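Researcher: Here's a chain I'd like modeled. Treat it as a single chain, no partners, no ligands.
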Amino acid sequence: MFKKLFNLIKFVWSHPLNRNHRLTAMRRVLYWQIISRIKDGPIILPFVNGTHILATRSMIGATGDWYCGLREYQDMGFLLHFLKPGDIFVDIGANIGSYSILAGSCEGVNVIAYEPIPATFNWLQKNISHNQLSKQIKIKNIGLADNKGTLKFSSNLDILNHVIINNVEQHPSIEINVEKLDDDLVDTFPTVIKIDVEGYELQVLNGAKKIINNSSLIAVIIEINGGGIRYGKRDHEIHKLLISKGFESFEYDPFNHQLNSLEGKYNSISNTLYLRNIDEVQHRISRKKTFKLGTGHTI
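Model: Modeled as a single isolated chain. Structure tokens:
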């Protein structure tokens, strides 16, 4: 318990969005540690663009957004600065909806969110309803893969729920219908896709060949952290596939609205940002729009 609390404090203290507001961030941590233990039911946390996230103690991603403004500040900041009216954002592995709500709160942006775990999907529905974003965000309670069928998923790991092939860890599991993204999004071509499926990313991409080949797709935000090994897949396979489709790998600096090339490599710790049509991307982020976060700060 003490180690977990120490790691939390270290994360919040060192988070770039808290750089000039560390004591205020620590007060948010203290507030949450107290209120989440004495209050029954979900707690409403300010998020971005006037939206909120409904959260309970077990929701690591949502509380991270509350402590820091944007837990994954580089990728979330990129979305805020990049998206424009008419864009379609596809959120694969939406969890309770932080990325979906962020994108859906941007003017004129439509979102399609996939969350396979029914209990988590229920929270996704609640968050979208609370923020009155049902018109902007379409949600789907299915999984995505390289073939249509059913797969078993863990059901008790919050943001770490994943496809189970051989349940050697004996996690509680649930059987979920899965589709190919190409089959589910017929004649719909997104501008940005975020994929966070705990190691099953390559299978999702292999079921989205038409979408990846379409020039309307400019950005892919994807987690590449070795999780695919449980399915016999290597990280470099994802990287090789996206590079072959004309994407280049970057990190984004939201403080300076600047792209930083990864020089043909990928981030093996967190998400990697893959982009093509770089002139268009540069044009969008050069608008230097700012957005107010739930912490009261801007990005």
